[in-house]
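User: Hey, quick favor. My workstation is busy. Could you predict this chain's structure for me?
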Amino acid sequence: MRKWIMNRFWKPCAVRGWLAGCIALSLALAAAPAPAAQAAEAAAPSFSLEAPIQPATAGGTVVVRLRGAGLQRLFALEATVTYDDEWLRLDAVRGTVEGFAGTAPGGGDGTAKAFLTMLGNDEVSGDAALLELRFTALDVRSGTIALTTIRTEDADGNRAVVEADATVRVNVRAAGNGPDSPPANDEAGEPPGLAKNRPPSDASGAAVYELDAAAFEAAVASSRDTTDGERKIVVDMDASTEGASALLVDGGALARAAASAPEATLSLRLGDDLSYELPLALFAGTEDGEVEIRIEPSMPPSVDGVRFLAPPYAFRITVASEDGVRTIRDFGDRFAVRAFRLPSGVDGSSAAGATIDEATGRPTFVPTALRETEDGTVAELRRNGNSVYAIVRIEREPFADLDGHWAQRDIEALASKLLVSGRTDDRFAPDESIRRSEWAALLVRGLGLVPVDNALSYEDTREDAWYAESVAAAQAAGLIEGFPDGRFLPDEPVTREQMAATLVRARSLIGAMESHDAAAYADLLSAYADATSIGGWAKPSVAAAVQAGWLQGMGDGTMSPRQPTTRAQAALALHRMLTSSGWMN
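Assistant: No problem, here it is.
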């Protein structure tokens, strides 16, 4: 058994004028240093901090966790975390994976120490929660806890230093949430004045909250002080599975917030199992009304082969003014995030996020990313509109024509997630060309875009065609266009360079797309024997798609830019784009 000696040192840190406590969470490292070359070869993992969602109360406990991602046979670590010791007192540190043990820090002069030691010869790989820091809240205010440096050693003795730059913000309010509570804050605060101070608005027995406008605007202003670049106003509401939960907000306060902080988000949380995150920019133009954001359980009809893994909920936003009540269904180029926590024991690998048709119960794909937390798996659904949402498992027969195909496993997985469908129930046609109408429908489905009412103006399309809504939505979003002669050519194949261009547009719609200058993409594409055949208009897009890993060359070393894209190639390219964007696993 390896023997460890705890001999790490501690340094107090000063951070911008306030007294900081600096803790080094240490595992003593092996005496014999590893060769520098081996240390350099080891891939550096990443680390982050997690703070509690609920605000703490003065005198209460604050638990912050340290997580590692991409760990490779981790055997020991030393972490440096800074905080204001006039605001928080560190009481204990413990390991949260089997084989780690911790001791409580000492001190009280702005310096805290904690040692962790590995028991036996265990090691940790992959993603894991490593440490838990337990603080006592000393003062009623908000502040940050920062992770600055991580030193690691793997089971082979290779050492690495990671300059971490992770912070979490913690809000401490007065005990009892009385008038001495601090203003609402960016990530964990419940705005003062939030209360069940209205009777149910209808016979459903809804739990109705009213958000104090002044407190909300103060929270928006204070969110500028966050250090992680994310501006989020969190409102905690009691979870209820028996009726609706509704938040009433003055439309003028929302409109002013949208103007001053269009990049910020409003996050409604119903207990630990459901949340709804909305971009504030969505509320531009609500100044003359009262906004109701409602989340309520839904009971759509059952459908064969569809099993609910998490209960379906309907999400609705209405604006009541002197002109009547209007419903906000289409968010345009703004995307909301709905997060469902999966029940314990549910296999997330087979879970699919979906909108559910309230009349038929039919599910439709929604981009969904699964995230592992201490309390289980969370599914995050992104879409630019409201509807009924759920997490489902699809039971279906495999496609008969995929047996032995190179993309069989991937396509079957994407079909079970509802992203792709066959040309018939049992036939996918993986090697046939994907048509422009099919590609438009796949793009719209992949991004979760809501239908639009725009009429098609192409001379070769019909408004009653199966693809009409998808083509209209794709055109409205700027993803795909017709030809100068007024035709759309719905049955023509999509070439590989056309696919690259539309993927780049799709990525730009859901988030920033890295650009390439002429020299960069020329150098990147020079590896392909037929690079000169790529259209000048398409070269930046093809280069970007290759750089991002969405598009790959053919087996003969060519790009074949004007060759039709097969249905299998299109499905996998779209999946790679959604995965690299964090919208899907």
